[in-house]
Specification:
Layout: H1 4-15, H2 17-26, E1 31-32, H3 33-40, H4 44-56, E2 60-65, E3 68-73, H5 76-86, H6 102-108
Antiparallel strand pairs: 1-3, 2-3
Helix pairs in contact: 3-4
Length: 117
């Protein structure tokens, strides 16, 4: 018999629009809070709270790079569900010129400014 409690918790994680947006952003690769904050147009505290929920659920993990903390999607089932629900990931991460983190700054310099929001 399936574990309905565990499966219900999984779908609950995906039910919130902003959490779904965060997970979609993480399909492109690691992202810092400031990048997600700008992409979602939400306050840093709200984005951090949603990331903590996803991390506590074992869906995302962190990686420190200097003073920045980057989040990454680690759950293969969530990735598979996102691919089925949202379609395949585009070739490049959308660049947001408002994000000041080092990774976004590096992406801005490669001529992709036209793909910003």
């Amino acid at each position: 018999m399936p574990d309905y409690t565990t499966k219900s918790k999984l779908f609950h994680l995906l039910a919130l629009e902003n959490r779904l947006h965060i997970l979609d952003e993480l399909r492109y690769g690691d992202a810092c809070v400031c990048h997600l904050q700008h992409r979602l147009e939400k306050p840093q505290t709200y984005v951090s709270q949603q990331l903590r929920i996803l991390k506590d659920a074992g869906v995302v993990d962190t990686n420190r790079d200097g003073v920045n903390i980057f989040y990454r999607l680690i759950d293969p089932l969530i990735r598979q569900l996102l691919d089925l629900a949202l379609g395949p990931v585009d070739a490049q991460r959308p660049v947001d010129v408002r994000c000041p983190c080092p990774r976004c700054a590096g992406e801005k310099g490669d001529g992709n400014e036209s793909s910003s929001i």
